[in-house]
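ok so I'm stuck.
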Amino acid sequence: MKYFAGQLSELERTDAEKHIVDCPQCYKTIAQLTKSMFAEETPEEKAFLDAHIKDAENIRLLVKKSIETTENKNSNIVAFPNKTQNPKKKSILPWGISYFAIAASLAFIFLVGSAIFSVVRYINSPKYQIAQSVIELREANKMGRLTNLRLDNFDYAQLAKGRGISKPETQQHLSKANSILEKQINNVPTPETFNLLAEAKLMVENYNEAVAILDKAISLYPKNPALYTTLSATYFASKELEKALVSINKALDINPNYLPGLFNRGLIYKELGENNKARSDWEYYLTLDSTSPWAYEVKEKLALLN
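replied:
not stuck anymore, here's the structure
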């Protein structure tokens, strides 16, 4: 790595180059890297070098010259001097820079550039963007839960006081999440992405849009309980309790132990005045989860019913 980074003294560099000449594995590896740097450079990598590496074009031309001096024109590997040759005479440019150093430096630049491009590509990838939307939604949720019901993807939070959505910070997080998810829904049309977008719409009270998104998602993924649960929560928020009950029943038909479904159906039953059914759901919930913050809220609700 010190050789690649140009951190060796003149004597150390000379010794390293002598080793490379004597070691087929070393000179073949560096030669192949040199060849690949010049011949297989992607447009993105070329743009990076042009923008950020001084004299990048000169380096490419020098490597090209090195490649053109190969003794085997049909080989993918640059020819280096053998043991009987004086490497200084053929490997040193007029101003004292060896082709070895150029090849190694370019290899090092390529490795660093590739790492940077990997990070940039990941940051711009749909997967990363969707992960960012989850962070934004969770940050909004931390400032106060915007619905009585429990939604998938969120940790426990106390109910927002008043109209929690009116807080500037909450609006900012929700706006970012909506913007990201609307752009990425076609790139990653998974049930999770649909559900996140619907939850974002629900949290900003765009109930009709949330329902439309969920109807489409359910037509594609009819066995996903989270989609029915978010649909139920949307109907609940818009005061359509019977539709909310139908949707949550579908979620629990798919998974009878789905905790958000049990939590929410108890609330729906309570709003419908069916306290015994609400009690039954919440008591069953506590057999599955008795220690989480959600469980403590269920216990409080049960105490009020009793």
